[in-house]
Amino acid sequence: MTSAPVRTKQHSHLPRWRHPVRLIRDNARAYILLNIAAYGLTAVGFVLGIVFPGLQAARVDALEGDGTAGLVQDLVLTPPLFALVILAVNIGKVGLGFIILPSLVVPFAGLGLFAYFAVETGITLAPTSPIAWVQLIPHSLTLIIELQAYILLLLGAWLLGRCWILPRTVGAPNRRRGYLRGLRSMAVLAVPALALLIVGAIWEAYSLRYLIHPLAEWLL
């Protein structure tokens, strides 16, 4: 008796670095919606900070109160160290604290927490002086890069929640298997997210050190 030829999965021979691309492509609608939400909520916070300067002033006071503003002033003249600190904060506080760890405990929790963070970030970045508008020029690229990294983590959190709650939609026999499959997807997306956070931290540190002053002299 001859057996039927075994079919291989369509994407099984893709190189490992293309797996994140496959996940994004297969979940394009969720990825687009997460982009709209992340950038949109940041823009909402930005507008709120401009319209209501008291909100932005409160954020500045909070950053000065917890030592963040002072730390930035101390490190800005040492870009390599500053980049490491930025990266540590973005990974530990935002990536892990707001997105990954909450989503490991409660499905989709990271999405809600990040929504709050996005609005708060927009308020913090709202310029209230001419020099602040100048700082926003290079920092806009930083924001685009870092938000894109967080969006990849948010997509991972969304996939984890979906696999966890509806395991059969991804071919998993039970929620435990679905959870593990979601974790795998999150780990795959975390690799390019980390790469983007590294690029964003380097750009932020060096642009603040070397671009703000010449831009201010040219534009103001």
UniProtKB/TrEMBL annotation:
The chain crosses the membrane at residues 32-55, 75-92, 99-119, 139-161, 182-203. Keywords: Membrane, Transmembrane, Transmembrane helix. This is Stage II sporulation protein M. It comes from Pseudoclavibacter terrae.
